[in-house]
Amino acid sequence: MERPNEVLFYVGTYNPEDEEAILLCSLSPSTGEMKILEGTKGIENPSFLAVNSTGSVLYAVSEKDKGEVYAFAIDPVTKALSPLGSRPTEGGAPCYVSISPKQDYIFVSNYSGGNANAFPVNADGSLQVMSDQVKHEGSGIREDRQEAPHPHSVIPDGSGKHILVCDLGLDQILIYRLEEGKLAKHREINLPPGSGPRHLAVHPSGQWVYLANELNCTVTVFANDEQNGNLSIVQHVSTLPEQYNAGSDDTASDIHVSPCGRFLYVSNRGQDSIALYHIEASTGHLKAVDWQVTGGRTPRNFAIIGGKLLAANQNSDNIISFSIDSDSGRLIPTGNELKIKTPVCIQAV
Q1: Rounded to an integer, what distance in angstroms lies between the CA atom of residue 229 and that of residue 22?
Q2: pLDDT tens, 114-133?
Q3: CB under 8 Å to 101, separation ≥6 — which residues?
Q4: Whose CA is closest to 309, among 272, 243, 257?
Q5: DSSP 8-class letter at 137
Q6: How far apart are CA 119 and CA 107, in angstroms?
Q7: Considering only CA atoms, which of 189, 198, 258, 264 is closest in space to residue 229?
Q8: Sheet strand arrangement including 218-225
Q9: In this structure, are residues 194 and 173 in contact, taking their beta carbons and an 8 Å threshold?
C-alpha cells in the first residue's frame, strides 16, 4: 500500500474492542491531506503505540483497569495489522509503550498501577512473559492528582542501558539499569513539587532531554549524561504565554523535538495549542516563540511526520495537519482535517 508521495501512520484511540480502535491512515506531505485506509478491531483503548525499527511490528497498550499490551505484525505491503498476542501488565491504565534500541525488550508504564514493566521480545516480535516490574511508592502535594504514584511514560536512553520512568504522582524521573531483563534502581531525579512529569523528548544530539510537566504546565531542560545515567536540570520554562490566565483544565501533554534539532513543540490541553520553542544550539536552552491553536479540543498527542505536524484532538474527534516553516519552525494550518473518534496517539509507520 506504499503510495507515491504519501506517508502512512497509525492512530490509537479510546474505542472499544468491537470497534476499529487502531486506524491506518495516509498523509500527503505536499498538501497535508489525510485519509483513513483501514482499521483494526480486537483491542480496547489502544491509547499509546510504538513501531519497531524495521517497521514489522506494532505494540499497543490497552488502557483499562486490568491492563494489557498487544503485539501486531505489520504486513510489509499493505501495512495491515495481524495479532501476535497480548500480555497482562499487572497494573491499571497502561498509558505508554516503548522499545529498546536493540528491539529485544519493550517497556510499559501503568498510570493507575504505580508500576512499570519489561517484556522480552521474541524473534517474530511477539512478547514473552514479563521479565520484571518495578512498583513505585509515595505521593505528591496535589491531593487530586498526586495521591499515589502515577508512572506516565517509560523510555530507554540511547544506549539501552538505562530506562527512564516519568512519575506524575511523585514529581520524579526514576532511572533504572536494565540488567538481563531486570530493572535495577539507579537514580531519582526530583522535580519541583506539583510539576507532574509526563513525557520526555531527547534531542537528536543526545546532549539534552526535554520534559513536559503536565500539572504546572512547564518544560524542564536537562543536560544528559547518558554514560552515567544522569540528568541535570538547566532550565524550566512555561508552556503557556505570559499573559494567559491558566485554569484547572490547563495541562501540558505531549512533547517532541524537530528532526533538525532546532525546534521544540509541546501540546497544551485547555488552551488547546502547540507551543513552539527555539533551541539554543550550544546550550540546549529554550526560547518561547509562538503558540498555534490546534483546531480542536484537548491535543493529547501529536507527531511530526513527512515534514508536517499532526495534532490529535481527543475531545473534538479530529486530527489537524500543519506545515512547518523551515526557518522559524512556526506551524501553518494546511486546511486539512481528519475525523476520527477520540484520537489519542499518532505513530508513523
Answers
A1: 35
A2: 999 999 999 999 999 999 99
A3: 156, 158, 159, 160
A4: 257
A5: -
A6: 6
A7: 189
A8: 197-202, 208-213, 218-225, 230-238
A9: no
Condensed to tens digits (0 to 9), the pLDDT of residues 246-263 reads 888 999 999 999 999 999
Task: Tell me how far apart the alpha carbons of residues 333 and 32 are, in angstroms, rounded to a whole number.
Answer: 9
Nearest Cα residue to 8 out of 26, 21, 20: 26
Residue 299: which of 315, 310, 313 has the closest Cα?
Answer: 313
Q: What is the DSSP letter of 75?
A: P
Other CB atoms within a 10 A radius of the CB of residue 230 amount to: 15
pLDDT by position in tens, the chain (length 349): 446 689 999 999 999 999 999 999 999 999 999 999 999 999 999 999 999 999 999 999 999 999 999 999 999 999 999 999 999 999 999 999 999 999 999 999 999 999 999 999 999 999 999 999 999 999 999 999 999 999 999 999 999 999 999 999 999 999 999 999 999 999 999 999 999 999 999 999 999 999 999 999 999 999 999 999 999 999 999 999 998 988 889 999 999 999 999 999 999 999 999 999 999 999 999 999 999 999 999 999 999 999 999 999 999 999 999 999 999 999 999 999 999 999 999 999 9
**For the sheet containing 22-27, what is the strand order?**
34-40, 22-27, 7-13, 343-348
Q: What would the DSSP string read from start to end of 275-332?
A: EEEEEPTTT--EEEEEEEE-SSS-EEEEEEETTEEEEEEGGGTEEEEEEE-TTT--EE
Measure the CA–CA gap between 192 and 235, rounded to whole angstroms. 12
DSSP-based three-state secondary structure for 316: helix
> Cell numbers of 348, please?
508513523
**Composition of the chain by helix, strand, coil, percent to 5:** 0, 55, 45
Q: What's the whole-model pTM score?
A: 0.98
Q: b/e string for 173-185 if b means 16 or more Cβ within 10 A?
A: bbbbebeeeebee
Contact of 152 with 95, CB cutoff 8 Å: yes
